[in-house]
């Protein structure tokens, strides 16, 4: 299972701006750990996500000379995708496509129909640049708005993405409502229906709930799983109270540490105190 570390998600909702030089220090330590992928930043409107306004400057400061880790940047529209794809260091661009119409509007100011048109163009752009598009199916385990939801609806969205040529799809529990049973059921359904897709899991969770959710992903055969050190993060566009990411330090014992530099992981955990402050949840 590929382990994806998400400092971008961890930082994006912080009330204080993390200085660029501190971001660079933190990300460079994470690069030494040896995760498969680092979700390091986003090319989005600084008005919407001010914390990520310095993503290009952060990228310029990263030491990629010895790491095996691939970089992923989140984009919210075609302009952001075009900017991200100009950087040779970035292998993946990630786009949040919601199965909830309300959240699609909140998150990207687009309808689902408009967002799918954007995905088609992003896939074309990524292919041309020899990069890979990762589509996150936001609200992939339900939503708080009363919008329609079912695993079958997630399957319909997946089929649309497959038809567009998207090869990596990550159902996302944007507000932490999933259960281990729902996680395993959804991924077993999707993996049986779409064996050629590389499925990832981007789950948000409350303290103490991570282990059973990770185990559910493993049992179902998920290929990629996202986490963030100490469980920081959450989507500021989804709700006022952020629900954090799966804590990476709780994922590793369950999926294995082969190839990871555990000393660098310990260093990153220590440095995270300067980035995020003390754990408050």
UniProtKB/TrEMBL annotation:
Statement: the UniProt record of this protein carries the keyword Metal-binding: yes
GO biological process assignments: ketone body biosynthetic process; L-leucine catabolic process
Domain Pyruvate carboxyltransferase: 1-266
Molecular functions (GO terms): hydroxymethylglutaryl-CoA lyase activity; metal ion binding
Membrane-spanning parts: none
Keyword annotations from UniProtKB, A to Z: Lyase, Metal-binding
Tagged with keyword Cell cycle: no
Top-level taxon of the source organism: Bacteria
Coiled-coil annotated residue ranges, if any: none
Family the entry assigns: Belongs to the HMG-CoA lyase family.
UniProt protein name: Hydroxymethylglutaryl-CoA lyase
Organism expressing this protein natively: Rudanella paleaurantiibacter
């Amino acid at each position: 299972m590929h382990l994806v570390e998400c400092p971008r998600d961890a930082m994006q909702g912080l009330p204080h701006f993390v200085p660029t030089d501190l971001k660079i220090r933190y990300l460079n330590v994470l690069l030494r750990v040896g995760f498969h992928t680092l979700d390091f930043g986003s090319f989005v409107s600084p008005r919407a996500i001010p914390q990520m306004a310095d993503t290009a400057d952060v990228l310029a400061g990263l030491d990629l000379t010895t790491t095996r880790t691939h970089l992923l940047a989140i984009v919210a529209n075609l302009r952001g995708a075009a900017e991200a794809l100009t950087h040779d260091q970035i292998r993946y661009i990630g786009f949040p496509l919601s199965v909830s119409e309300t959240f699609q509007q909140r998150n990207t100011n687009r309808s689902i129909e408009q967002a799918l048109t954007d995905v088609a163009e992003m896939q074309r752009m990524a292919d041309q640049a020899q990069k890979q598009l990762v589509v996150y199916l936001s609200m992939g385990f339900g939503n708080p708005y009363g919008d329609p939801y079912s695993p079958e609806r997630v399957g319909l969205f997946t089929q649309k993405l497959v038809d567009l040529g998207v090869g990596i799809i990550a159902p996302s529990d944007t507000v932490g409502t999933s259960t281990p049973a729902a996680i395993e059921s959804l991924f077993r359904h999707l993996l049986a229906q779409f064996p050629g897709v590389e499925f990832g899991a981007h789950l948000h969770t409350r303290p103490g709930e991570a282990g059973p959710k990770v185990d559910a992903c493993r049992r179902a055969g998920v290929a990629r799983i996202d986490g963030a050190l100490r469980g920081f993060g959450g989507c500021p566009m989804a709700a006022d109270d952020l629900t954090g990411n799966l804590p990476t330090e709780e994922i590793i014992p369950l999926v294995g540490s082969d190839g990871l530099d555990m000393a660098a992981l310990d260093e990153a955990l220590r440095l995270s105190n300067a980035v995020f402050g003390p754990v408050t949840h």
